[in-house]
Amino acid sequence: MCTVEKRGNLFILTITGDDEHRxxxxxxxxxxxxxxxxxxxxxxxxxxxxxxHGKFFSNGFDLSWAQAAGSVSAAAERLHxxxxxxxxxxxxxxxxxxxxxxxxxxxxxxxGFLLALSHDYMIMRSDRGVLYMSxxxxxxxxxxxxxxxxxxxxxxxxxxxxxxLTGMKVKGESxxxxxxxxxxxxxxxxxxxxxxxxxxxxxxxxxxxxxxxEIRKSLYPEISRLLGLPEKFFSISKL
Length: 239
Fold this sequence. Notes:
Blueprint: E1 2-7, E2 10-15, H1 25-40, E3 47-52, E4 56-58, H2 63-67, H3 72-95, E5 100-104, E6 107-109, H4 111-117, E7 121-125, E8 131-132, H5 135-138, H6 144-153, H7 157-165, H8 172-177, E9 183-185, H9 187-203, H10 209-219, H11 221-226
Parallel strand pairs: 2-3, 3-5, 4-6, 5-7, 6-8, 7-9
Antiparallel strand pairs: 1-2
Helix pairs in contact: 1-3
């Protein structure tokens, strides 16, 4: 479901296959395993780029798996289970000791949007793909850490309103104008080239990853508290 390739200082985490990349329990476990591998091999100057094959970056939780439980209550339990086990993915990305980039070459919806938003930078296609929070259209409420991440990462209250309360589908160029993503590029190759270019620029700074992660967490205190991310303190190593 996921592969990790190391190219110099860049870790490329690729969501494989040509389906919707629904976040099932097994898929979530695969992402966590990949992030654990990246973290264990991190060194100063490391950068993570997350990308995907096919039309979708991720279309959110595997609602078909939830509905296959049979009853409404059983389906709700399965959905709640996915909400809970996805939380560590967000926590890992927000505490990963390196800059992170989401190269969004297709649709990113609901929890798939949240997966992308958990990265430091997002880059989209200009010719295909949307960002979409489908919960309001499906009649689902937002988990607390979903709301907290949106408040932390998207500064405009009107943009958050339109994303979360109207189910607006946002394409690449619009996402740039709204301040959600860094840039938009034509084609999957264009997105990946831009992500690699940015990754190489960040890698050249040769930052120590642990202080980088702590500074990131301090930028987003509400979501960090909800995720139970502990604070660490480091002595000044460069003077």
